[in-house]
């Protein structure tokens, strides 16, 4: 029996790296028995994912394929059929390696929070062949549900929800194949690396994304709140600010945002940028663990802060942030919904974080061991 991970994508999103490495640790099988499809094999090798899984390079799109796809887009108006054609080209060579004795693990995390996509395609193709399929460490809100998603949720052998709010959404669909465990990345340990220059004094780590800002711009409602927050930190505290990119994909690149922030504040000497691109996930976790406070948009950056007991504010825009914070019994003040943020909401949450720093840190230290221990149950989830 082998385990196949078609939705690994690649470590250009350090969250994908984290999920795949943690999943391999949880499974406890050799790298030869865990096979992951990668859009960027060279990067994944640099991140040492090959120590955990066998990395299979995804097919490239040839000129012939691109022409064929363009012609189809002109002749076929049904977007679902067009996507099916593209998914077939990309995923079928990988899926065709999977036998009925194998297991497919769909590691997309929050992929079901977005439009109908390849999670559905890969599951349906394997369901037709009687292959066991697990939706792994997922989040999905009621507002994200579509008829196609509901149908494929029923076709997964088992569903591993990473927080209780998602589990409730799935239970409300009368699904009987749902189990709840913390996100697999909670089990990963920080990997020591050289700290950036910011750490000559206390540091607040700040991770931002275009999703929470609403654009690659600070000229948005939430961008104004971020500016207010940074102004407040510079004026009212002695903290250095370390901007921490966590995703490097085109159209999602956090480095664009952090450069905008640094430029807006005229490269203030108290604002630093972490060279995250040169670090793997666990090294970034080590840097985050040394911060006095952390504020983050990317779920797996926030998980690094939680798991190392750093007082943290999650900048949420979906069910996942609220669900994880709820399961950790954290105050609602520590999750800021970027889509519903009123004036000074971020500054107010930061002030709450500072005022309650010791209690929050102690609470995380108290709950984290038992919370992480829950992940041990995933092993029996796999084999039962």
Automatic annotation (TrEMBL):
Transmembrane segments: none annotated. One of its GO terms (molecular function) is transferase activity. InterPro entries: Polysacch_pyruvyl_Trfase. Keywords: Transferase. The keyword Transferase applies. Residues 13-318 form the Polysaccharide pyruvyl transferase domain. This is Polysaccharide pyruvyl transferase family protein. It comes from Bacteroides xylanisolvens.
